Amino acid sequence: MGEEDALFVASRVSDIPTPYVPSFKVPCSECGEDVWISEDMEKYWSEMRIVCTVCALKSASERRGPHTIKIVPENIKGIIKYLLSR
Q1: pLDDT band for position 33 (50/70/90)?
Q2: Which of 4, 28, 54, 73 has the most Cβ atoms closer than 10 angstroms to its Cβ?
Q3: What is the DSSP secondary structure assignment for residue 13, as one 8-state letter?
Q4: What is the pTM of this model?
Q5: 52 within 8 A of 12, measured Cβ to Cβ
Q6: Residue 14: left if φ>0, alpha if ψ -120 to 50, beta else—which one?
Q7: Phi-psi region of 10 (alpha: psi -120 to 50; beta: other; left: phi over 0)
Q8: What is the 3-state secondary structure (H, E, C) of 16-70?
C-alpha cells in the first residue's frame, strides 16, 4: 500500500457513541457507516480516503503486506489527554 493508497482510519459512531475529542460525523468511503473525525486532524484526513475500522481491517486482510501504520502525534496526545481525564 503506497502513499496514494493511504487511508484515514476512524472509529464508527455505533462503536463510540460519544467521541473523546471535538469531532464530527462523516460516512466511511467503503460502507457508508458514520465515523467520528477529529477536528484537529484535518491535515491528515483531508488528503486521505476515510474508512471505518471494520473496512480498514478487511482491506488489510485482503491485500498482501507489508502494511505500514502511522500514528500521528495529535492522535497520541488525544489518547493521553483522554486517559488522564478518567
Answers
A1: very high
A2: 28
A3: T
A4: 0.73
A5: yes
A6: alpha
A7: beta
A8: CCCCCCCEEEEECCCCCCEEEEEHHHHHHHCCCEEEEHHHHHHHHHHCCCCCCCC
